[in-house]
Amino acid sequence: MAHSPPFINPRSGYSPATKTFHSLRSPVPLPPVSQPLSFTSYLVSLFPDRFPSHLAFINASTGDSLSYPDLVSQIHSLASSLHSNLGISKGHVAFILSPSCLEIPILYLSLLSLGAIITPANPAATPSELSRLIDISSPTHFFATSSSSSKLPNHVTPILIDSPLFRSFLESGHSSYSSDPIEIWQSDPAAILFSSGTTGRTKAAAVSHRNIIAVIAGTRAIRPSEKDTTLLLGPMFHSMGFFMVMNNIMRQETVVVVVPSPGPMSLTISLAAKYKISQMLAVPPLVIALTQSDEAMRLKSSPLRRVICGGAPLAPEVAKRFNALFPNVELSQGYGSTEAGLISAMIGPEECCRLGSVGKLNDKIEAKIMDLGTCQALSVGQQGELYVRGPAVMIGYVGDSEANTLAFDSEGWLKTGDICYFDEDGFLYIVDRLKEMIKYKAYQVAPVELEQILHILPDIVEAAVVPYPHAVAGQIPMAFVVRRPGSNINVDDIIEFVAKQVAPYKKIRKVAFIDAIPKTPSGKILRRELASLAASGSLSKL
């Protein structure tokens, strides 16, 4: 006798029988998993028979541009050249050290079409940091720019992306070269993406062609018919920028690339006006800056209709200020990770009004909320660690069996390390990072909650809360604060303001003023750096 599928609440997506939350988004079919297919071939297959003639990319620094026909032609030409001249083929690992530029998407997609594994790294990393990343990923080939190549080890001779040789590769290969010269399976590794390392050493997440296909397919249900001109204010070496660029290509949209990123506010505003930007990718610090800049008011009369915010939590108070200042612009928050792609997102004005949330589960994502003490699955409105499962979840960490053991449970669920809950309408809320919770006596204090309260104060530009060692309590909450220029707000003002709004154990008990909050490229606060600074007794140097 066939069993009926478990009941799923059509409002929350929760199944009481399995204690699992399900996506309620319109499903987008994936290609059969048994079908040989590279991500490049999948992406190009989504294009119309006649490639769109408008621009795919514009470099805001140089004015250089690339049309969609040229993009596809150069992908094939570069793949042909890399294969015939350098012997790059399936399984080779290409380490890429470059700021965002027009050549990077071409290089990514060419390498993926050959079955090579792309490994993008932050060009701002130090030589010692890069040496560790190279040790982890074991590259067979290197790509860099004239400005970044000196950071690579002496024994490495990279192909320079800004050299005449590379330019000849873009133009002299066979433009009709098949995007799948080698049989590539969807389960084959496609990329090694380095995690932000906010709570420890950077890890290398291996993702397959299938993983990337699932992420991009899942976004097809989000605003499927719109064509935007996007201002890309995130680096392409980071997973958020990487997936955003691939999503833009899938939609045949125009992307304006900004280097350096994000640059001064005046530059952002002028570029938005010059290129008639309708969509902007932004991390929380930029959203905060938009609410505090008089120059940003020029955006009110621009074509801008959407700001996509991700990479780190955004305080509801900041979102409220943004919505009040820009009532015709959707502030669309989302949540994802290097390891799992896009987990949730907001779609449309109604969802964007759900302040504090990061949207609803993306297509084909399953989730559980696990109790921190009992490891039992929880229900609607209950807080615990978020576990996720789906076709976008990574293969695993490269060369780190211990990290893989900690990351996955016995049923293949990925432990995100984030404390979350779902409401009765299926919206996901992030409370804080599990490893960043402050242990005050017998209580756990969420830094994000206190940061959101601090952002209510107009005299505070940025804030970060970290644990500070205490002989009796174990840890106490300490705030690092960036004051608005000219502000006279003091330590007592801040401590008193927060104390009126939280339970006694959550009170901020120590404050230090600082010029800038250290963050990752995606905008996540590097609390461990601030905690180390506080614990080292170096506060007098601030």
Characterise the protein shown here.
There is one protein chain. The chain has 542 residues and is of the alpha/beta class. It contains 15 helices and 27 strands. Helix 2 packs across helix 3 and helix 6 (209-219) crosses helix 7. The longest helix has 19 residues, at 68-86. Residues 449-524 form the AMP-binding enzyme C-terminal domain.
* Average residue pLDDT: 89
In the predicted model, the low-confidence regions spanning at least 5 consecutive residues are: none
Strand content: 15-25%
Distance between the termini: 70 Å
**Major pleated sheet:** 15 strands, mixed
- Secondary structural class: alpha/beta
CATH class of the domain at 39-53 and 67-221: Alpha Beta
Count of alpha/pi helices: 15
Helix content: 25-40%
Number of DSSP strands? 27
Question: What quaternary form is this?
Answer: single chain
CATH architecture of the domain at 39-53 and 67-221: 3-Layer(aba) Sandwich
* Strands side by side in the biggest sheet: 1-2-18-19-21-22-17-16-15-14-13-11-12-3-4
CATH topology of the domain at 39-53 and 67-221: Rossmann fold
Overall geometry comes to: globular
What radius of gyration results from the CA coordinates?
23 Å
Pfam family, one: AMP-binding_C
Keywords: ATP-binding, Ligase, Nucleotide-binding
Organism: Dioscorea cayennensis subsp. rotundata (White Guinea yam)
Family: Belongs to the ATP-dependent AMP-binding enzyme family.
Core attributes:
542 residues; alpha/beta; Rossmann fold; GMP Synthetase, Chain A, domain 3; 15-stranded mixed β-sheet; four-stranded parallel β-sheet; 15 helices
